[in-house]
Specification:
The structure is a single chain. The protein is about 35% helix and about 10% strand. The protein is of the alpha/beta class. It folds into two domains: about 80-340, Aspartate Aminotransferase, domain 2 (3-Layer(aba) Sandwich); about 350-475, Aspartate Aminotransferase, domain 1 (Alpha-Beta Complex), CATH 3.90.1150. The two termini are about 30 Å apart. Bound molecules: pyridoxal-5'-phosphate.
């Protein structure tokens, strides 16, 4: 497909700016002034509309395709939450609306939503207080580990390490490193969860905490969790719950009751708002009572007369971690979603996400190797090692699925599983959709026996077939005018 720049014809116009009615300022210093015209594409309105409409049709999205990306929870995108987010009373509100004469903030409705979400997420996760500010799961992790560090500093604990299982999402060790800790990676055992014996050897007084996803990225719930919690608490370490997989346990068990001290929730995974394309997201962080003084400011508090105010009076707070109140629109969608579903609806999420994943596991285990052959939670991890022996790797199966109008599952993650195919159907897919996916996966296996070479020029249905992904990641160049020097 041609780029919009390639469609440009000199002099063609889609829109004309009105003539300026203020004096042209000559105050831009000489060295910052453009030497020649900006190379905007010159196109008609029809060119623009058709170009971007066609481009949008090349996209995969949950509105158009099954999207079984493990660890990402690409569930459906309910439309009523979009309606709520588009209400002018919410989307036209400005975070620094003036105060009333009596000092009351005019943003009462928005503050009410943020305050109520604090209470709802605390109830759902078993924590004592939440901040809605973090802008994604990874940002929530950083906030949580900064709170951990502030706690240890206040306790005068000298701590150096954060323990992370080898199946963890890459953001966990990255977070620990950015917050100034060294990470200790602990291996998974044959059943797919953190190895307790190895963990014992790593626990000492220098351990600040342990970051755990539960169920983990193998889709397995750790039955030793209370033992692990006790081991970490015994050295005054803190337990961090990576909540990316919360949909697997919603309404069934609460991280706070298990003994976790800090939790992040990915609103864009568990509570509506799919996040393909990188956002926006929201990663609220909840803490137990002893850590509440360290939460970011401002915190939203309620007066006796049911009005809300921003409270900055937390001297031990880690400070600001985002401007204003975080991604308010995403919090608002999650709030509407939770109210609409209610307790029974939230429990149905965990029921169906676990049922759907186990259905796929049972249907496909005759064809694909299962490294952890046991009941899974909301996602299951297969390995294409047998297909790979015939020359068909996980990436080839992914490309085959693209040609059959299905988004591939996550491949090559978690790192603990060779040729990993990590499948999360989510709770919102029908049996017919799951059966279609199963059929295509079985077809891929059959084709790996009858004609393995046929995989290697796939996908055939896309604009670009097999980009050099390593080069694309390391030498990213998205600038059409890249050959020009920056000062041109
Ligand atoms: C998605 C994910 C994260 C990071 O969350 P983002 O919102 O993408 O920043 C962390 N841990 C796990 C297990 C995840 O699946």
């Amino acid at each position: 497909m041609e780029l919009i720049f390639e469609k440009s014809v000199a002099g063609r116009r889609g829109y004309l700016l009105p003539k300026t009615d203020v004096p042209v300022s000559a105050s831009i210093p000489e060295q910052f002034q453009r030497k020649r015209d900006c190379p905007f594409p010159e196109v008609t309105e029809l060119d623009v509309v058709r170009h971007f409409t066609r481009l949008s049709h090349l996209n995969y999205s949950v509105d158009t395709h099954f999207y079984p990306l493990g660890s990402c929870t690409m569930k459906y995108n309910p439309k009523f939450t979009e309606q709520v987010a588009a209400m002018p009373q919410f989307c036209e509100v400005h975070p620094i609306l003036p105060q009333l004469k009596n000092g009351e903030l005019l943003t009462q409705g928005a503050l009410f939503v943020l305050y109520e979400m604090d209470k709802l997420l605390s109830e759902i996760t078993g924590m004592d207080a939440f901040t809605m500010q973090p802008l994604a799961g990874a940002h929530g992790e950083l906030t949580g580990v900064m709170i951990m560090a502030a706690y240890h500093k206040a306790q005068k604990n000298k701590k150096k390490y954060i323990i992370v299982p080898d199946a963890a999402h890459g953001t966990n060790p990255a977070t620990a490193a950015i917050a100034g800790y060294e990470t200790i990676s602990v291996k998974s055992n044959a059943t797919g969860v953190i190895d307790i014996d190895q963990l014992k050897q790593c626990i000492n007084d220098d351990v600040a905490g342990l970051m755990l996803t539960c169920p983990n990225t193998h889709g397995i719930f750790n039955m030793d969790i209370d033992k692990i919690t006790k081991m970490v608490h015994d050295v005054d370490g803190l337990m961090y719950y990576d909540g990316a997989n919360l949909n697997a346990i919603l309404g069934r068990c609460r991280p706070g009751d298990i003994g976790f001290d800090i939790v992040h929730v990915n609103l864009h995974k568990t509570f509506a708002t799919p996040h393909g394309g990188g956002g926006p997201g929201s990663g609220p962080v909840g803490v137990c009572e002893k850590l509440a003084p360290y939460l970011p400011i401002s915190r939203i508090c309620k007066r006796d007369n049911d009005t809300y105010f921003l409270n900055y009076d937390y001297p031990q707070s880690i400070g600001y971690i985002a401007s204003f109140y975080g991604n308010f629109g995403i919090v608002l969608r999650a709030y509407a979603y939770i109210l609409q579903l209610g307790k029974e609806g939230l429990m149905a999420i965990s029921d169906h996400s676990v049922l759907n994943a186990n259905y796929l596991r049972e249907q496909l285990k005759k064809y694909y190797h299962l490294p952890y052959d046991r009941i899974c939670m909301h996602e299951c991890v297969f390995s294409a090692v047998e297909q790979a022996q015939r020359g068909v790797h996980a990436i080839d199966i992914a490309k085959f699925l693209i040609d059959h109008d299905l988004h591939p599952p996550t491949v090559y993650f978690p790192l603990t599983v060779k040729e990993a195919l990590m499948i999360e159907p989510t709770e919102s897919e029908s049996k017919e959709t799951l059966d279609l996916f199963v059929d295509k996966m079985i077809q891929a296996d059959e084709l790996s026996r009858s004609n393995p070479a046929s995989f290697h020029d796939r996908p055939k249905t896309t604009c670009i077939s097999r980009p050099d992904e390593v080069k694309a990641a390391r030498e990213i160049n998205t600038n059409y005018f890249a050959e020009e020097k920056p000062d041109d």
